[in-house]
Structure prediction request, 271 residues.
Amino acid sequence: MALAIWTALAMLAFAGNSILTRMAVGAGTIDAQSFALIRLLSGAFMLALVMLWRKRQWPALRGRGPAVLGLLVYLFGFSAAYVSLSAGTGALILFGMVQVTMFAGALLAGEAVAAKRWAGAGLALAGLVVLLAPKLVLGGLWPMLAMTAAGVGWGIYSLAGRRAGDPLAATAANFVLAVPVAALIWAIWGGGDWLPRGVGLAVLSGAVTSGLGYALWYRVLPQLGASRAAVAQLTVPVLAATAGLALGEPIGLRFAISALLVLGGVALASR
Prediction:
């Protein structure tokens, strides 16, 4: 039960990132690259403060290349995609690719994937298609490619988290190491007007739903395993679509059917 609660909180944080990013870059209050950089800086600062407060030792920095690279690809692809994609559509593409990446990682690592887990994953994916397929034609090809890259990046980051001995320290180290590279990316491709609302949303996303949310995710990952973690994240598009009501995205019978399929698939795969 505790694992289910912590996992649910992590999924809410992930859905929150979709909504906050869409509210900021989709509304034009900040450019995508600047949002990603501020989000990363805020998360690194928050995690460093928590590390000091908890008097934790910083982990070894060697061997963090895959996690840092995955985090950077995710952050910049995620922000760029939400300039035009809706919250629900972006989450569908993101976590669809996350599932593919993490299932591939599980198979390469020799992790046993039970038949009911495959069935649950398929059922959940079918639910997402029912919910969001009519919207996939919106937004053009480039945002979808950007979110596809973000999904691969997040899948790599999640796979790296299975070996995290100290979830908080590992997340903090990944964020801090990613900052110089993110600043370089921003210096080359970033730039634009910053409105206070956009900056505030980036800080909230970075400090709370990213920094603390990802530390929580690294805490539950070792207990979930790669394939079950991949399936659990398929709840995020449903949560994002629900929260998207505040952004004027209506739900109806299609949403109810999709939610039943997704949650039923996750329950089957997680038993």
